[in-house]
Specification:
It is built from 7 helices and 5 strands, in the order αβαβααβαβαβα. By secondary structure, it is an alpha/beta fold.
Length: 198
């Protein structure tokens, strides 16, 4: 296989995944946008977190909310719990890595806030503890998941929302989760600030 075939194959895989996923992702994505918009209109905030590449998506989403997505508009209240290395390191050293987000949720989360977590398979102990802490704070969880996330799914309450990517390929999951994050930002912006051309 030459390099072009490798490149084309990767593009084809994500195109096919998008095609088979859009119908199952659209409804929970709309619900998540409505939930986040309602929270923001009620002067609540969005706390984002994830592990590994999911932490990067959480940071991307937070940046788009606090700064801007595709148009200039007022800043929206969001924070990335995986963005403060010193805090995470201190918590992990004293309490264990599974507490890196839950401790921050207990410190910053308030009733009506949204916990937005990004999971891409196994190794979700810190996100699991964050969801439990969010529920203790009467927060709702929105989870972008992919692969085998049964441990996370089993914790979700009826009012929580899971947007699941039907793939076991870490690369494809991260690519589609990035698109989902962008769609979420656009839906929030359109609802709060109206339609616009890009």
């Amino acid at each position: 296989m030459d390099r072009y075939d490798t490149i084309a194959g990767g593009f084809q895989e994500i195109i096919e995944l998008i095609s088979v996923s859009v119908d199952t992702i659209a409804t929970p994505l709309e619900r998540a946008a409505d939930l986040c918009t309602e929270a923001l209109l009620n002067e609540r905030k969005i706390l984002c977190c994830g592990n590994g590449p999911g932490a990067a998506i959480a940071q991307l989403l937070t940046t788009a909310l606090v700064h801007r997505f595709e148009q200039d508009r007022p800043a929206l209240p969001a924070t990335c719990l995986s963005g403060d290395g010193a805090t995470m390191s201190a918590i992990a050293t004293a309490a264990g890595s599974h507490e890196i987000y839950s401790r921050q949720v207990r410190a910053l989360g308030q009733e009506g806030d949204i916990l937005l977590g990004v999971a891409a398979g196994e190794g979700n102990s810190s996100l699991i503890q964050a969801i439990r802490a969010a529920h203790d704070r009467d927060m709702v969880a929105v989870v972008l998941s992919g692969g085998d996330c049964a441990d996370v799914t089993s914790l979700l309450h009826p009012e929580d929302i899971e947007i699941h990517v039907p793939s076991n390929s870490p690369a494809r999951i991260i690519e589609l989760q990035t698109m989902i994050a962008h769609c979420l930002c656009k839906l929030i912006d359109q609802t709060l600030f109206g339609n616009y051309d890009t």
